[in-house]
Amino acid sequence: MTTTATRLDELLRRDYPHGFVTNLEADSLARGLNEDIIGLISARKREPQFMLEWRLKAFRHWLTMTEPGWASVRHPPIDYQDIVYYSAPKSGKDGPKSLDEVDPELLRMYEKLGVPLQERERLAGVAVDAVLDSVSVGTTFKAKLAELGIVFCSFSEAVHEHPELVQKYLGSVVPYTDNFYATLNSAVFSDGSFCYIPPGVRCPMELSTYFRINAKDTGQFERTLIIADEGAYVSYLEGCTAPVRDENQLHAAVVELIALDNARIKYSTVQNWYPGDQEGKGGIYNFVTKRGDCRGANSHISWTQVETGSAITWKYPSCILRGDNSVGEFYSVALTNHHQQADTGTKMIHIGRNTRSTILSKGISAGHGSNAYRGLVKVLKSAAGARNYTQCDSLLLGDQCRAHTFPYIEVKNATAKVEHEASTARIGEDQLFYCMQRGLSAEDAVSMIVNGFCKEVFKELPMEFAVEAQKLLGVNLEGSIG
Amino acid sequence: MLEVRNLQVSVEGKAILRGIDLAVNAGEVHAIMGPNGSGKSTLAQVLAGRESFTVTGGGVRYLSRDLLAMAPEERAREGVFLAFQYPVEVPGVSNVYLLKAAINSLRKHRGLPELDAIEFLGLVREKMTLMDMADEMIYRSVNEGFSGGEKKRNEILQMAVLEPKLAILDETDSGLDIDALKVVARGINALRSAERAIILVTHYQRILNYVAPDFVHVLSQGRIVRSGPRELALELEQRGYGWLEEAAPTSPLGASAK
Amino acid sequence: MTSTDRILADFIRAAPLLPGAGVAWLTRARQAGLERFAQTGFPTPRDEEWKYTSVASIEKRSFTPLPNGAHAAPPELNALAFPHFPGHCVVFVNGRYSPALSAVGLLPPGVALESVADTLERAPDALEPLFAADNRETVFGALNTAFMADGLYLYLPRATTIEEPIHLYFVVTNKNAAIHPRNVIVAEEGARATVVEHYAGTHGVAYLTNAVTRIFAGEQAAVDHYKLQQEALQAFHVAGIHATQDRGSRLWSHSISLGAEIARNDISTTFDAEGCEATLNGLYLARGRQHVDHHTRIDHAKPGGTSREYYRGLLDGASRGVFNGKVIVHPQAQRTDARQLNHNLLLSKDAEVDTKPQLEIYADDVKCTHGATVGQLDDAQLLYLRSRGVDEAVARSLLVYAFARDVIERIRVGALRSRLEEMLLARLPQGERVRALA
Predict the structure, then answer these.
(1) Which residues, 6 or more positions from C300, have their beta carbon under 8 angstroms from its beta carbon?
(2) CA gyration radius for chain B?
(3) Contact between chain A and chain C (3 or more Cβ pairs less than 8 Å apart)
C-alpha cells in the first residue's frame, strides 16, 4: 500500500503526461467533407469498389441525420466542414512493410508513450497495432500470430488481404445507418485494427491497439473489427492518448465484435485522451460506438473500460445476446474531473434463451465534472430464462460535480429476472479522517478510497492494464481535493 | 419406512450422488456424516423434492410409494419433513401464517378437521415453549431478519408442530452455539418415537452427543463409504475424514455402497 | 379535423359554461393551458416522458368535456354502492360536486372544505396563487387547467388537525365524457389532514378522467394523501399530483392503481425548504390488456430532505406496467437522503414491465440509492412453502399476497387498508385459502 500511495502521490502532481506533439511530416487531405473527400480517402487506401460504395451510402445517409441530443453533455456546435478527415505520417508512402521501415522518429514517439513497437523479449506477451491519426503505422508479432492462423493487422491491410472477411462482417453489428457518429465513421474511417481468430484457437497473447492523435485539427475515425470464430478466445486491449491542444478534437470510432458459437472476446479499454485543461479548454470529444454480437450459442463478450480522459465521453459498449446461453458483461470506471463530461453505459439486448448479463459501473465525479450512467437492459419475448444483474455506484468529490443515473429496464419475458441497484454517495469524511489519522495525506487517502471503490472493475483488467488504470486515476484526480 | 436404492443424482451434468443405498425404519435415528462436498445436503434435498437436481439412476421408496414421483407438498403431507440448512426468507408471509397453512393442509390430507384459531395457537405456543422462542417470533415474516440460530430453531419448531413421520435435518447443528444446540437437540429428542424416523445430516459429531443415533453413515464423493454404530462418529471425530478416504470402503452393516 | 382542432372547438363551446367564466385571471390561466396543449398536441412515444405509454387511443376517441357535469345524480347512481368509510365524504358525479350524495361532518373553525366550482363562483381570488402554472405538469395537466370544472378545495389554517379522513369520490356514469377534476389542498403551518381520492365509473362505460391535485404543505404540516384508482376497465385515467413542501413538512402519497384501460400518473413533490420528508408508496395491479404507468419525481431543492419511495407492480395477462422514478438533488440540497425501490412481478408470459429509476445529483453530501427488479415468484420460497405441505397454487397466491402487502401495510387509514386487502384477495386465484389463514 505504501508504495502505491507514494507513487500516486507523485503522479498527483504531474500534468497530462502524454500531451507532447511529435513533428512528423504528414500527408493530409483538405478540410471538409464531401463525396470527393471520401473518394480520395478510399483512393489513398486503394480500396476495392465495395468499400467505396459502402462509404458513399453511409455518407448520403449521414446527410439526412442530426446529432443526438439526449445525452447529458453540452458542447458548442461542431463544424463538420472544419475537420481534416485524413492525415497520415508521410514516411513510407505505402505504409511500412515491416517494423524496420517505420520512421525512427515515430518509434521514439511510441517509446515515449510507453508503447512498445519492438518485439522484445520483455514484452512478448502483447502484440500491438499502433494507429496514428488516420493510419496504422505498425503491427507487432504478426508473423508469430499467423502461425496459428490468427489475422491481426491494420484494417487497411485486411481490406486487401482478407476482403471476404471484411465484406462479410463489416457493418454487421453496427450498420452504417446506426447513429450519427457511427454513420460518419462509416463514411470516413481511415484505419483501425482487424482481428480474426480461427475456430478453436485460443490467442496466446494479448492483442492491443494503441491510438494516438498527433496532427492538429484532425478528426480520428478508426474502425475495429474483431471476429472470434467457433470456440476461439481473444483478449484485446485498447489505449488512447493525444497532445495538449486548445481546440477540441473529434474522435468518432466504431468497434464491432462478433463471437460465434462457444467463442469468447474480452475487450479492455483504457481511454486517456487529452481531457482539456482545468478550465475546460480543449480536449477530445470521444463519441464512440462499440457493440458486440454474441452471435453463437454459449458465446461470451465482456467489455471493461476505464474512462479517465476526453473532454466529453459518449460511449455505450453493448452486447447483443443472440445465441442461446450467451453472456454479456460490462465493467466500467468513468472518472470526470475539472470540466469533463461523461455519458456512458451499456445496452444488453437479450434475445437468446438463458442469456445472462452483468453490468458493473463505477462513476467518479470531481471538480466540475459531470458523470452519467445510461444503460438499457432489454429482454425480448424470445429470451426465456434471461438474467441480468446491474450495479452502478457513483462517488462524489466536491460540491460542484454531478452524477446521474439513467437505467432503462424493459422486460417482455416473464421468466426473466432483472435486478438493478444503484447508489450515490460522497467520499465519507470519516473514511478520509481515518486514513489521514493513520498518516496518509489527503491525496493518498482519496486515491486509496477511489481505488478501493473501483477494485471490482480493475480486477477484470489484464494485469498490465490494471496498474496503468490505477495510475491514471491518480493523475486525473489531481487538484480535486480542496 | 424409507428405502433408497442405488440413488444417482447430478447437477448440470456433474454427478453428485453416485449410488446411495440406505434403509431407514420407523423408530430409528440415522446420522449421515461426511466432509463438505460429499453430497450430504444433496441427498437431503432430493428426498424433500428440490427440482434443480436430476436423478440419473436408482430410486427411493417411502411407505411403499415412489417418493421421487411425488410433488414436494405431497411428500410433506405424507409426513416427510426437511429442516433446511439455509432456511429461505419469505418477506411478508408471517410464521404463524405459514404454520397455519401447513398444519391445516396436513390435517385435511389426513381427513382431520382444521384447527380453529384457539387450538392452533395453543399448539404453537406449547411447541414454542419447548424451543425457548419468544411469542413475537411467530408474527414475524418467515425467517426474515432471523439470526442463524433463530432460523434453525424455527425449523425445529415447524417440525414439532407438523409432527412428521420422517424428519430429515440438514446440518441443523451448524453455526449454533452450545446453548442453542442443546435447545435444538431437546426439540429433536422430544420427537423421537417408535413411529418416527429421523435422519440427521451433519458435518460434526457434536450434536450426536445430545441426540444419540442408532446408525452412522459416512458419505464421501457421493457414496456411503462406511456405516456403523454410534461409535463410528466418535472415531471420525478423532481421526478425521481423511482416514476414511484413504481406507478402502468397507460395510460392516451391509448398508453401504456396492 | 385533428385532435388539437377538436379540443380547441370543445374549448370554445365549453368555456362560457365553465365555473369562474368571468374571472380574468382564471380565463388567462385556462387560455395559457390551452395554448400549451395546442403547441405540442398529445404526447407521442417519441417524447421521452411518454416513451412507454401511447395515448393514441385517448387521442383518437372524442371524449366530450362536461362543463356542467350532471347536477342531478342519474338514477343508476343509487345502485353504485359507495364503500362505506368512516370520515367526511365528498362526492363528484360526472365531474361536478353532488351535495345530495356528500356528507361532511363537523370541522374545526377556519377550515374550508368545499367545491372548487363554488369557490370559483363565490370567492375566486383566494385560489389564484394556487392555480399558478407548474412546470412539473404534463400536457394533460395543461388541458386540465383549460377545462377543469370542479374538485375539492381544502384549506386548513395553522395548527388545525382533521382527524377523520376526507374521502373524495369521483364517479363517472356518462359515456364518452371527459372530466377534468382539480383538487387543491392547502395545509398551513402545523396542520394535518388525510385525503383519499377514489375514482370509479359505471362498469362498461368508456370515459376519460384527467385529474390534477395540488398539495401545499406549510411548515411542519403533515398531509397523508391516497389515490385509489378503480375506474371502469374501458376508461382512461390520467392524473397529476404535485406537492410543494415547506420547512419540516411531511407528505405521504399512496397511489393504488387497479382499474382503467390506460392509467398514467405523474406524482411529484418539491422540497422547497429544509428538512422535508416524503414517502411515495405505490401499488399497481394490471391484467388483461391494461396499461399502467407511474412517473414520480422528487425534487430535493433544499438541504436535509429525506425521501422514500416504494412502488410495486403485479402484472398479469397481457398487461404492461411502467415505472419511472426520478430523484433530483439540486445544488444546494446537501445532506439529502433518498431511497427508492421498485419491484415488479410478472405473473404471465405476456405481461411486460418497463422500469426506469433515475437519479440526477448536483450536490455532494448526499446518500441516494435506488433499486429495481423484474422477476417472477422465487423458486426457493415456493419450494419452502410446498415442503411444508402448502399446495403450489396456494403457495403462489400467498407469495403474491405477501408481495403486495408490503405496500398495503404502509396505508395508515385502517378501513382503506382492510378494503384493499379484501380486493387483493378477491383477485387471487386462491384468495379464499389465503384469507382463511389470516
Answers:
(1) C271, C307, C327, C328, C329, C330, C333, C336, C338, C363, C366
(2) 18
(3) yes
> Nearest residue on chain A to C360, judged by CA atoms?
A404
- pLDDT on residue A235: 92
Report the distance separating Cα A421 and Cα C371, nearest Å. 4
For B84, the closest of C378, C384, C395 (CB atoms) is C384
Q: Chains A and C: how many Cβ contacts under 8 Å?
A: 109
Identity of the residue numbered C250: R
Residue pLDDT, tens place only, C259-288: 999 999 999 999 999 999 999 999 999 999
CA distances from C403 to B92, C95, C415 (A): 6, 34, 20
Interface contact C405-B92, CB threshold 8 A: yes
| Of the candidates A234, A153, A225, A158, the residue with the CA atom closest to the CA atom of residue A185 | A225
- Over residues A51-89, the pLDDT tens digits come to 999 999 999 999 999 998 888 888 888 899 988 888 876
Write down the pTM of the prediction.
Answer: 0.84
Return the C-alpha cell found at A213: 492523435
C-alpha torsion angle, residues B89, B95, B101, B102 (rounded to 10): 80
Residues 6 or more apart whose CB falls under 8 angstroms from that of A314 comprise A71, A73, A181, A285, A286, A287, A288, A343, A344
Q: How far does CA B123 lie from the centroid of its chain?
A: 22
Taking the CB of residue B145, how many other CB atoms lie within 10 A of it?
9
Residue C317 Ramachandran class (φ > 0 left, ψ -120 to 50 alpha, else beta): left
**Within 13 Å, how many C-alpha atoms sit on residue A324's CB side?**
4
CA-CA distances (angstroms) from residue A409 to A319, A424, C373?
15, 19, 9
Inter-CA distances, A378 with C50, C92, C180, Å: 18, 43, 36
Which residues on chain B are in Cβ contact (under 8 Å) with C403? 92
* Other beta carbons less than 10 A from residue B55's beta carbon: 14
Q: pLDDT digit string (tens) for C157-211?
A: 999 999 999 999 999 988 999 999 999 999 999 999 999 999 999 889 999 999 9
Minimal Cα–Cα distance from C115 to chain B, Å? Answer: 41
Q: Annotate C319-354 with b (16+ C-beta within 10 A) or e (fewer).
A: bbbbbbbbbbbbeebbbbebbbbbbbbbbeebbbbb
Q: How far is B176 from chain C, CA to nearest CA, in Å?
A: 22
- H or E element that contains A188: helix A180-188
Q: Residue A129 has what pLDDT?
A: 74
Half-sphere exposure in the Cβ direction for A336 (13 Å, CA): 28
If chain B, 258 residues long, is cut into consecutive pieces of 10 residues, what is the mean pLDDT of each piece? 94 90 94 89 90 90 93 88 87 81 84 87 88 84 85 90 92 87 90 93 88 92 90 83 60 39
A204 sits in which H/E element: none
C139, C40 in Cβ contact below 8 A? yes
pLDDT at C396 over 70: yes
Task: Tell me the one-letter amino acid at A175.
Answer: P
